[in-house]
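Quarterly update from the structural biology core.
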Amino acid sequence: YLNIRKQPDENSEVVGKLFHSSGADIIQAGNEWTEIKSGSVKGWVNNKYIVTGVEAEKLVESLAVKTAVIKTDH
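Predicted structure, tokenized:
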């Protein structure tokens, strides 16, 4: 898991955890740290440990399970 921190600093208080292959909403992207919201937790993660943009899209595509639902009237 990746620690979600209160401030963009490795010594800042841990306010939550982002587990492997989890997603989050990006609030503010920075050069070294990105502010995210995951569930009820809002905080900062180090960019060394996350993927965004095209790289994130490729990861989702490789992990996603595609399903189809067919509805018909009899």
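The chain has a mean pLDDT of 91.
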